[in-house]
Amino acid sequence: MRKILSLVLAALMLLSVTSVLAANEDIVILVPNADHGWTGAVLSYAEEKAKEINEAGTYTAAVVASSDPANQITQIEDIIDNKSAKTIVILPYDNTLEATMKKLVDSNIPFVMFDRVIDSVAENAVSVVKGDNEGIGYATAQRFVKDGLLPGEPVLIIPGDNSSVPEMRNNGFFKGLLEAGWTQEQVDGIKSTAFTGWSRAEGRRLFTEWLDISTIEEIQANRYIFTHDDEIAMGMLEALKSSDIDPGKQAAFLGAKINLGTSSGLNEIYSVLRGIHQKDYIAEVAQLGDLFSVTYDPGMIKIAVQDMVDHLDGKEVPKDHVVPVSVVDAANVDQFQGFGDAFAK
Question: Which residue ranges make up each domain of the chain?
Fold first, then answer.
C-alpha cells in the first residue's frame, strides 16, 4: 500500500512539474536567487510587479529564480523548447549566458534585458534597462577628485564580478579620472582586488587580505577605495570592528582618513550614514575622510517588466533605458529610500 501511495505521489509531482512547464505565460521574469541584498530586493520587486500584472488581468506573469548560471541556461532552453512563455524579462546571471541568449534571439521570443548587459544580443532586445553603471563610476571619480585625489595617487578598487556591470563602473571611473588630468598610464596602474561576487563575506575577506599584505606605509598612502557595492562596504566596516585585523594595520587605515565610495542603496549603509546602525559604526565613520553611496535601485526591475508590458500593448519602448544616479551621503541620506532592512539602535 505504501509503495502504491509513493507511486501516486510521484505521478502527481510529475504532473505538477509538467503543468508548470507547459504554462503559456505572457511574461516570464528570470532573475538570480537572492544571494545578496540587491538581488534579494530585485526578486521581491519582480514578484510585486508580477502580482500587479496578474491582478490587472490583461496579461499573465511569473517570476522564476535561478540558483546559478547553469540553472538559468536550463530555464531559458526549457522556455524555448516548450514554448512556455510568449516573452521574457531577464537579469542574466553573468556573461556565460551569451550563447544561450543567442539561442533566445534565434527563437524570436521577445526579451527585455535588465542590469547585466550581454552586448552581442543587446540590439536584439526589446529594451535594455539598467542603472547608469558608468555614471556610478564617473560620479565616484568626481567625488574623489573633490575630496582631493590627485593624478597618480594610489586607488584601490574592490569589484563585483566578471559581468558587464563592474566593467561599466570601472569605465566610468576611469573616464572621470582622465577628465581630471590623469594619464592613461596612471589609470592603468590602479590596483584591484579579486572579484567579490557581490558578497559581503568575500568583500570582508579580500579587504582583510589587502590589509594583511600591505605595509602600514602603503595603507596610509592609499586613501581612496572604490567598491562596487554596499554589501562590500559593509563587509569592510564589519572587518574594522572585528579582531580579524592587526591593530596596527587597523589604526593605520583609520588614521589615513580614507575616502570610501560605494553604490546601490542598501538601507544598512543608509543607517550607517545616519549614525543609527545598531552595531554603532559612528567611531569608524568619523575617522573616514568621506563615505558615500551612489544609487542603483533594484526597483528598476519594475521598469524592465513595464517595458515588456508596453511592448505587448504595441507602444514604443526605448531601446536603451538608462536610469540616472544620485550620490548619497550623511548630508542628504534622509532624502533617499534604500532597500532591505534598516538597522536602528
Answer: 2-131+299-323, 133-297+327-335
pLDDT confidence bin for 287, thresholds 50/70/90: very high
Angle among Cα 108, 311, 168 to the nearest 5 degrees reads: 80
Helix axes 200-213, 247-255, angle to 10 degrees: 100
Does the model's pTM come out above 0.85? no
Q: At what angle do helices 230-241 and 200-213 cross, to 10 degrees?
A: 60
Are 2-131+299-323 and 133-297+327-335 in the same CATH fold? yes
Triad 75, 78, 80: Cα angle to 5°: 110
Looking at 3.30.70.20, 3.40.50.720, 3.40.50.2300, 3.40.630.10, the CATH number of the domain 2-131+299-323 comes to 3.40.50.2300
Cα gap 29→79, rounded to integer Å: 12
Tens of pLDDT, residue by residue over 30-47, are 999 976 678 888 999 999
Whole-angstrom CA distances from 337 to 45, 266, 269, 277, 317 are: 14, 9, 11, 16, 27
What is the distance between the alpha carbons of residues 125 and 143, in angstroms, rounded to a whole number? 34
Task: Check whether 207 has a pLDDT greater than 70.
Answer: yes
pLDDT at 343: 77
Domain 133-297+327-335: which CATH number of 1.10.150.130, 3.30.43.10, 3.30.70.120, 3.40.50.2300:
3.40.50.2300
Say if residue 217 is exposed, middle or buried (CB neighbours under 10 Å; 0-12, 13-18, 19+).
exposed
In three-state secondary structure terms, 307 is helix
Q: 141 vs 98, 145, 149, 203, CA distance in Å?
A: 31, 6, 9, 21
Terminal alpha carbon distance of the chain: 58
* Interval 85-125: pLDDT, tens: 999 999 999 889 999 999 999 999 999 999 988 999 999 99
